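Appendix B, record 7
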Amino acid sequence: MDRKAAKANGGEYIRVAGGYLEIRQKVGAGHVSSTGKSKVVVSTSGFKPVEGSELRVNLTAITKN
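Structure tokens (predicted):
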């Protein structure tokens, strides 16, 4: 992903660069999970394609509620 595309997407991206998976996602205030046990602060909301590869990534980052 070039810089223009990353900027257009709010600076967020998922890519493979130099053999490393790179994920840049904005960490938010979060929302309570469906079980009420944790707070979801980052989520891709399902599997997302990784530009330039056949990979798909599903990311969820949580904190204790």
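Remarks on this record: The first strand starts at residue 13 and ends at 17. The radius of gyration is 13 Å.
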